[in-house]
Amino acid sequence: MSSTVSEVKRGCKESHIWNHYIKEPLGSGHYTAKCHYCTQTWSRRRPEILKSHLALYCKEVPLAIKSEYMEMLAIGSTSTNRKQKLDTDSSAEIDADKKDRINQALIESHSQLLIILIL
């Protein structure tokens, strides 16, 4: 008896972060990622690292996307697809250096946005 069995996806729903990256399978559920905007490439990166790249490091990402991911980092969101339990452990907090970089990037992007609106 021959029948086709469609592949069943298991695990977490795919993160929206992959809309901004070219995703190539490595096997075992891992992928390489290449940024659509600056073409930086990673091997086996987690979505949280890719979000940080768009929010803090990518110089070519559109301002609206950069702001969206900066806000996600600022409020401590690590996934747009699933709710996470709040952890009272201090390791769940954003370290001070990362928090400062997020705040600086938010101030800079809002300043750029205001200049654009004024012109």
Automatic annotation (TrEMBL):
Any idea what this protein is called? BED-type domain-containing protein
The organism is: Rhizophagus irregularis (strain DAOM 181602 / DAOM 197198 / MUCL 43194) (Arbuscular mycorrhizal fungus)
* Lineage, broadest ranks: Eukaryota, Fungi, Fungi incertae sedis, Mucoromycota, Glomeromycotina
